[in-house]
Amino acid sequence: HRNAVSHVVKGMRTFKETSSEVLCTSVALFHNFGVMSDEDHQEACEIMIDQEGIKAIHEACEEWEDHVLLLTSAMHALFNFADNDEIRVEVVDVGLLDFVIDMLKRLDFEKNLMKTA
């Protein structure tokens, strides 16, 4: 379904303040979306940008900035899209790169998140 990301984003925004479980599940879904076959990967990246998936990941992380499981899931999801130039630009444009760097400095007590990055 071509609009799946927008529906997930809508759910993330609806439950952003009340349910970290919804956010973790949504980010895990985006993680799986990012590992599509090579011929579908470019389209997946475009959909993530057009339907505000990257922005929603950032919003979720900001809302639950101390939720290590969510933050780690977000790192895994972003890793699956990091080979795409447009995604990298989007990550910078929405402020997610700065957030990730600050988060790593603040929460990486055991160096597990830095290894993921």
From TrEMBL:
InterPro entries: ARM-like, ARM-type_fold. This is Uncharacterized protein. It comes from Octactis speculum.
